[in-house]
Design goal:
Belongs to the gluconeogenesis factor family. By secondary structure, the protein is α/β, with parallel strands linked by helices. The longest helix has 17 residues. The two termini are about 25 Å apart. Helices cover about 35% and strands about 15% of the residues. The protein is globular and about 55 Å long. Helix 1 links the parallel strand 1 and strand 2.
Length: about 375
Amino acid sequence: MSFPSTGEPGEGTRSDRPAIVALGGGHGLYATLSAARRLTTAVTAIVTVADDGGSSGRLRSELGVIPPGDLRMALAALAGTDVGAEVWRNTVQHRFRGTGALAGHSVGNLILAGLTEVLGDPVAALDELGRVMKVDGRVLPMAPIALAIEADVAGLEADPRVNRCIRGQVAVATTPGQVRRVRLIPSDPPACPEALDAIDHADMVVLGPGSWFSSVIPHVLVPELLDALITTRARKVLVLNLAAQPGETAGFSAERHLHVLSQHAPGFKVHDVVVDAESVPEGRERDHLRRAARKLGAQVRFADVSEPGTPKHHAGKLAGVLAQIARDREGGADDTTTDDVRTSYDGWQLGVRPGIGGKESASWR
């Protein structure tokens, strides 16, 4: 599968379709990709590869492949919109029922595992399945090997000052204690070369939302990936979760999420932090959040980005905020905290997609 180019490296040419790179995993990344595809067809997903539960964990253990579940979900988020692509989207997301050996496996997980064995390369497998699903953009693993997450967790011993080391993404995500710090095993894993190239040629890089310790922070723990995120000329946007997650970030404020990210990647800076306006009330909590954002070099953008009555991001509303950030960048707007962000992306719709329309725009640089 050939990815729609934004210009070959070194040639100095770029497409008039802005390139968005989204990093994360699971349902959080699905939300970001669903928003990004409304703005451009040049979308690249860079996905965590530390899942050790369910179908992904079984395939990882039995076949030695990188866990395919989050990669499959990213493909589904970017799949084409015609009837044929819709059939494939539903098929790869289908999970076998029953009690036999296939029970609980997703069809897409099995296809990706099989393609990886046949082609000998997980990126080639993703590209091939993406071609069949008519994916707009590309889905890449953050590393070409499966990784493990290890965490220091407080609150599991009688003495609350004592940390216990627990290992595995599922264990970290569901711990009843409070996660203090996470590490990757191996500690210095290689980054996917294609992911590094995508970040280098991006116009906007979006990190989050998602499980903070197991889907978001792991990206800045891969040294080559962190270097690419630090040096890219892209506009860097951090999207905060709508609420703390039971177990992993129970009791965390929005401000605490930023402090934890800074602790794990001291040199990492972003331009914008997107926060749902309803999740952080006016007053001292917003002031604390703004101060924490300034340490990341960022402005805070409060906006309505939620699906009413749910803890999920609304794709259209999030797309509107990302479009506003791009417009401000093009217009040279000052990087000041914004408390009122319009969530309509009319007038800044990019690419030619069925049902979207709108004119294309020049690069955001």
